[in-house]
Structure formats: structure tokens, C-alpha cells
Amino acid sequence: MRDEGVGVGVGVDGGVGEGPTGEPAREVSVEELYAGCGAALLHHQVPRAGVRRAWLAGPTAAAWWGPGGRPGGPVDVVTAVGPPALLGPVLALAAATSPVPGRLSVEARSAHVVPAPWRQVDPWTWHWMRARRGDVPLAPTPEVVDLGLAHPEEVDAVLDAANPGSFARSDTPGVLTWHGVRRPGPGRPLVAVGALAAQPDGSGHLRGVAVLPGERGRGLGRAVSTSLTRAGLALADVVTLGVYTDNAPALAVYASLGYETVHTFVSGPTSARSSTTAAVPSR
């Protein structure tokens, strides 16, 4: 049973607790979550209609049950942001008043305060990054073609060969357009692709950037990412993406395009469901 707006938090050790600001962890409504939490990912990427429960301790610490999915089906996902001193009581309260989610994404700086039943199995670490209009001049990329939503078989063929683990496919809901590079010559096959997906706030999000193995080292991934970033910044003042922290080549490209890391997450299935789907970098 929900105790809406209760001003008492459950501490990390199971007792009553509150953050160093004196503001207690409490369960809140969806409206209170969006009004009270300033996390960029929440406001750009999380649809309000998908949030079922939320907990808050001031503008910098919050957790919410939200939508998540990958090939294989949906799963309950909790996302948690904030510094450990504030987020610890938030997660403890959430764990004390709700079941174990199928998957958890928590900011890396606070991963050590996750309650034991909610700790992840085989977690991965990734950055949620954002570029702002005007931060870095982006040169035109005439070699990149705006494919729209046409040529789905060709797009999927590149993904199958170059990035088979991609969660973005030709029929992924929310994708606005695919951009790609074609090899000169007979048939002009696609050798690199990437998608721009719509965010709930109207901004764009890069997904599924992939280059065929034999075509790598020619700057095609950078060209596609540049083209998609330009398209995203034509929609809104910001554009976002998710990338694994160990993908050094991609991180170098994105930094050169003006992307900055806003959140670093540790994500993974919990012991409740160790082989299912959830919020991960939007590959």
C-alpha cells in the first residue's frame, strides 16, 4: 500500500533516516517527481505515463519505476539518480515498500548504497551524454544519406553484421529516421547506419550507430554520428545518447562532437530476474 507523501525515510541500515540536507526520503506522485527532481535524464527521456511509483529526497536524489524493454520482452525497471548520502535512504525506502525490480539502473557514484536484495547480477557501466546547440560547430556530411524509414532490410543487414546486439532495429518504435553511408559502385550497398529516435520532451536521441567491419577506420561512424547530431539539434536545443564506458573510440568521437557526460550508470538485472530486459545504453 502506498503512503503518498509521507515525510519519513527508511535509512540504509533499515532505520528511519534522512539526507544531510534534512529532507527525508518519501514516496511521491509522478507530478511531484517531475517538479522536485532536476535529473536531466528524467526530463528528457522518461515518459510520464510510464512512471508507476517514485521516491524523492530533494532535487538531486530520486528513484522511479519506469518503462524498460529490449528484444525479449518488457521488464520492471527502477532508475535511481543522486549522491549516495541522499540516494541511500531513497533506495532503502523503495526496497522496503515495493518488490524487487527486474532490473536496476543506478548512478555509478551511488552503486554501493543499493540495498542487498536489489543489487545487480553481471552489471555494465555506461554514460548518458548530451550535446547542446552551438557548443561545437558541426561540419556538413555530404557522404551521409537521410534514409528516413525506408530500406528496412538493408538497415537490419548492416546491424546484423556490425552491431548484432543493437537494441535499435528498423522497426523500433519511436525512431524518426535512419542515416547511412553507401559504398560507391554497383548496387551502392549500405556500409554504415544510425538512427535518431524521439524523446518524450521532443528532443532526439542517437541509437544503433553501426559500421560494417570491413569499412571501419574511415571515419564513417563519426560521419553518421555528426549527421544524426545535426538532425537532432534541428529538433531541439539538445540531443542525447547512451554509450558503454569501455567504448573508447565512440567516446572520443562523441566528445569531439560536443557531447558531455551527464550521468554515469551501473545497470543490470537483479537477482529477481537475471536474464531479462531493461534500461541500457540506447544502442
From TrEMBL:
InterPro entries: Acyl_CoA_acyltransferase, GNAT_dom. Residues 1-20 have a biased composition (Gly residues). Residues 142-283 form the N-acetyltransferase domain. SUPFAM superfamilies: Acyl-CoA N-acyltransferases (Nat). Residues 1-24 are annotated as: Disordered. This is GNAT family N-acetyltransferase. It comes from Nocardioides kribbensis.
